[in-house]
Amino acid sequence: MASVAFLIALAALQAGAATAPQPRVLACDVPDTITSAPGAAGPLATKQRVFRIGPGRLEEWSGIYGDFGPNLCDVAACVTEPGKTEGTISTASVAYTIGVDAVSGAGYWRVIGATGFRQTEGTCRPVPDPAAQRRP
Fold it and tell me: What pairing do the DSSP bridges indicate for beta strands 84-90 and 121-126?
């Protein structure tokens, strides 16, 4: 009887794992904090930043190291709700949020706080996983 209960529990775990959302890789064009700082001359400059986001996971791609960095959800607020997954990195005066709509796959970013940026939100686009592309 115990083996039947074990098989039922195993089947339930496998079914749950099959429906769990997979991490998405998004490229977001966000204001460049160096060239877009308050008082900086010229038009708003953006910088492409690549993130891998999923339930309990927010990682930024590092071109220097050629891999994703540590899971920012370990030190930042990350939310998984039906329909969306978000990660927010914040300081005392600024909060950056990267998110993805679970149904449409549309990504977005927004910043709230004392940034001085003219643009405070935008879209992110799905991109191939750069970590998967570099592996043989």
Answer: unpaired
Strands 77-81 and 24-31: unpaired
CB contact burial 6-42 (16+ within 10 A = b; e otherwise): eeeeeeeeeeeeeeeeebbbbbbbbbbeeebeeeeee
Within 10 angstroms of residue 87's Cβ, the number of other Cβ atoms is 25
- For residue 56, the one-letter residue type is G
Residue spans of the domains in the chain: they are 22-134
Residues 19-65 have pLDDT tens digits of 556 889 999 998 776 544 555 554 467 789 999 998 889 999 998 89
pTM of the model as a whole? 0.73
Q: What tokens does 122 get? A: 């935008």
Q: Which CATH architecture has domain 22-134?
A: Beta Barrel (2.40)
Q: How far apart are the first and last CA of the chain?
A: 46
Q: Which residues contact 33 (CB under 8 A, 6 or more apart)?
A: none
Predicted local distance difference test score (pLDDT) of residue 9: 39
